[in-house]
Amino acid sequence: MSRQASRASESKKMNSELFTLTYGALVTQLCKDYENDEEVNKQLDKMGYNIGVRLIEDFLARSSVGRCHDFRETADVIAKVAFKMYLGITPSVTNWSPAGDEFSLILESNPLVDFVELPDNHSGLVYSNLLCGVLRGALEMVQMAVDVKFAQDTLRGDNVTEIRMKFIKRIEENLPAGEE
Amino acid sequence: MAVCIAVIAKENYPLYIRSIPAENKLKFHYMVHTSLDVVEEKISTVGKALVDQRELYLGLLYPTEDYKVYGYVTNSKVKFVIVVDSSNTALRDNEIRSMFRKLHNSYTDVMCNPFYNPGDTIQSKSFDTMVSGMMLQAC
């Protein structure tokens, strides 16, 4: 993609098959390299984290959203602006915990898994775990520590894909970012 | 409607073969195997004239007493073979064509699955259900 193109809000089109296949190649290569599903999940999360800490800058520059006043607002921005901008989907925000510090993103469709069928020997693999890392990394850069994990996944036979996000705390001082 | 559906790799080894009466498995294997010669013949005769725009659907390869064998070859030389019961006369060419198209689409999806290694036998569940759907439709 051309770098000189303005970072304005117009989104560039990209072939979704290419995107899906690229991510697939990445995951399968990790599976070959690590053999252990847990380890692959960890790597995906780590990679996502590294994407997230960068992507947030791009996101803030492009979207021009201001500071969020509470976690509910953050949730809305993530679902309606960020997911729309980068994945072209708008997940719904539901299942708020009574304390308002935990919610679920429900993805009707997940562009990462378009052709994927998990083989039986990878039952522990969280295929789209990269997304968790991205969210965690991005929010960490705006002083929010969150816990993100997949609660349901269509690849495991669930009807929808659900990402559960839990607010942990505000990061008061700006600690140096993770050494990964 | 179909009694046997097979996908054959470019190098002529089976990627996938499934038939309905399980006890006659071998018979269908032979039948599909034989059909490959006809496929080969068809491609080579047509191939010289219109290499670029050959139609993927090859039509009826050969009829036997009880069955009719239809063929389809993708541009990457992967062959699909469908065997139907010849007593089922209601089946038109058009329907066979659409079955092949469906098969081709499904095959493409299987190929796009990052966990599938090209050249392996197809073990995809969604492909399996699609094939069973085509076999059951009118049985």
From TrEMBL, chain A:
BP terms from Gene Ontology? Golgi vesicle transport
Please give one Pfam family short name. TRAPP
A GO CC annotation given for this chain: TRAPP complex
Q: Where in the cell is it found?
A: Endoplasmic reticulum; Golgi apparatus, cis-Golgi network
Give the source's domain of life in one word. Eukaryota
Q: Which UniProt keywords apply?
A: Endoplasmic reticulum, ER-Golgi transport, Golgi apparatus, Lipoprotein, Palmitate, Transport
Q: Which InterPro entries does the UniProt entry name for this protein?
A: Bet3 (IPR016721), NO_sig/Golgi_transp_ligand-bd (IPR024096), TRAPP_component (IPR007194)
Say which family it is in: Belongs to the TRAPP small subunits family. BET3 subfamily.
Job description of the protein: May play a role in vesicular transport from endoplasmic reticulum to Golgi.
Q: Partners and quaternary state?
A: Homodimer.
The name this protein goes by in its record: Trafficking protein particle complex subunit
State the species of origin: Erpetoichthys calabaricus
UniProtKB/TrEMBL annotation, chain B:
Q: Which UniProt keywords apply?
A: Cytoplasm, Endoplasmic reticulum, ER-Golgi transport, Golgi apparatus, Transport
The record's subcellular location field reads: Cytoplasm, Perinuclear region; Endoplasmic reticulum; Golgi apparatus
Q: Mind telling me which GO cellular component terms the entry cites?
A: endoplasmic reticulum; Golgi apparatus; perinuclear region of cytoplasm
One BP term from GO: endoplasmic reticulum to Golgi vesicle-mediated transport
Show the Pfam families listed in the entry. Answer: Sedlin_N
Q: Which family does it belong to?
A: Belongs to the TRAPP small subunits family. Sedlin subfamily.
Protein's recorded name: Trafficking protein particle complex subunit 2-like protein
Q: Lineage from the top down?
A: Eukaryota, Metazoa, Chordata, Craniata, Vertebrata
